[in-house]
Design goal:
alpha/beta; 11 helices; Rossmann fold; 260 residues
């Protein structure tokens, strides 16, 4: 399928592939893309299938999202890139990276994990549970969704809420979200060796991330050979929305040392 996307920078520049998490979309990168373009990078930010303005493409599984990401890379003519990944975007993007190592110049990981013994947080466990997940989403409207997001972060304005609500706005999108979470068995990661990519890694984390605690970043530090950790003070899980200027500055500084 063809993913809707945002783009900034020169078509010939080295690519930063920005992969959003749940329940977000390429909108989350809107303030990150201009600084990347300003230093000669080509920033590409797709809406994953069933998020933002990209249509649902059943089934909404982890594997289907990986295939769509690779299709997008091929469609855009990207030989190699630096995946910049948040939340579910990292689960999708890191599996993709392990399966396409020649396409990866470096990695930027935030607010996620990639561990076979990983555990889902409470909200995700509910969505992964048959009937419970359906009931939880069926009772959720736009205002309730706004309340959930704003309970985690005060950074979400009405425009952001409208953009992110798209992934849950009707039955097809809700089913897509449930399929994604229910395909997210961490045991699937047992065969992947992220360290074998042997590329520079930036770990960018909100100090008080309640969904992917900072301990996960420290585990990446221990398990990967060439990492740099940037902790954004005063930020939580939605670190790119909360502190875009600081995140962009850290990202640009890291990319200065990455050769395509």
């Amino acid at each position: 399928m063809t993913l809707v996307y945002r783009e900034a920078g020169s078509a010939g520049g080295p690519v930063a592939l920005l992969v959003h998490g749940f329940p977000q979309s390429s909108y989350m990168w809107r303030e990150i893309m201009p600084p990347l373009a300003a230093v000669g990078r080509r920033a590409l930010a797709p809406d994953l299938a069933g998020f933002g303005d990209s249509p649902v493409d059943p089934p909404g599984t982890w594997e289907r999202q990986m295939d769509a990401l690779e299709g997008f890379r091929q469609e855009m003519g990207v030989k190699s890139c630096v995946p910049v990944m948040h939340d579910w975007g990292a689960l999708i993007g890191l599996r993709w990276a392990c399966e396409h190592p020649d396409a990866v110049d470096a990695l930027v990981i935030s607010s996620s994990g990639f561990f076979p013994d990983g555990k889902w947080h409470g909200m995700a466990k509910a969505l992964r549970t048959p009937e419970v997940g359906e009931q939880a989403l069926a009772g959720l409207d736009r205002d309730g969704f706004a309340g959930v997001l704003r309970a985690s972060s005060t950074s979400f304005g009405d425009e952001a809420i409208d953009e992110y609500w798209k992934c849950l706005a009707d039955d097809a999108h809700r089913r897509n979200a449930l399929e994604q979470y229910r395909s997210g068995d961490f045991e699937k990661l047992a065969g992947y060796r992220l360290a074998d990519l042997d590329v520079p890694v930036l770990l960018l984390w909100g100090e008080s991330d309640e969904f992917a605690p900072l301990a996960g970043a420290h585990r990446f530090e221990r398990e990967l050979p060439n990492t740099e950790l940037v902790v954004i003070e005063g930020a939580g899980h939605f670190v790119w929305d909360e502190q875009p200027e600081r995140c962009a500055a850290a990202l640009v500084a890291f990319l200065e040392g990455v050769e395509p």
